[in-house]
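2024-03-11 09:14:02 DEBUG pipeline.ingest accepted 1 chain
2024-03-11 09:14:02 DEBUG pipeline.ingest length=211
2024-03-11 09:14:03 DEBUG pipeline.predict start
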Amino acid sequence: MKDLAIIGAGGFGREVAWLVERINREEKTWNLKGFIDDQQPIGTKVNQYTVIGTTENIKQSEKDLYVVCAVGNAKTRKRIIQSLENTKTIHFATVTDPSVIHSDEITIGEGSILCAGTILTTNITIGKHVIINLDCTVGHDAIIEDYSTLYPSVNVSGMSTIGRGSEIGTGVNIIQGKTIAQDVIVGAGSVVVKDLLESGTYVGIPAKKRV
């Protein structure tokens, strides 16, 4: 098994630990060493695991270590990942819950997290360090670019594109063929019925830019 640490010991980090446990029940894949966290002291117990370091001191590791970043905020996740990219002993794991349903005609970038109950159909491109949370659906020919976050129960219809670093709130529906620019936040429960081509925050039914 490969050594793995989860960056972020908060609520989503604990959920990802559970995801890794579910993977290992199906096939022994990861030796989960614990959490990497810049806010909690080293040695802090988080459920059955321990905070083993910070994002700074793991750069000094002489042993190969796989990491996955369980930080929902896209900008923070991007900053953390970019700070580690040139560390030779750090590798980025992709973790997919065993319950995820998908065709063989999809690509998933390194460092991405796909949570339980998600369905991805066919000819879908998932970028690097993307988070797709619980019970999302992604339709044919969709593109979800690097560092994007889909919170629980997001429905992305076919032929849609979600730009780099965007965050799509819980329960958002995106109708077919729509494009969302990079660095967009779509508020929970919104419905995207037209292209969102400028960075910013959009809310409502239909989703409109907050001034």
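2024-03-11 09:14:41 DEBUG pipeline.report The first strand starts at residue 2 and ends at 7.
2024-03-11 09:14:41 DEBUG pipeline.predict end
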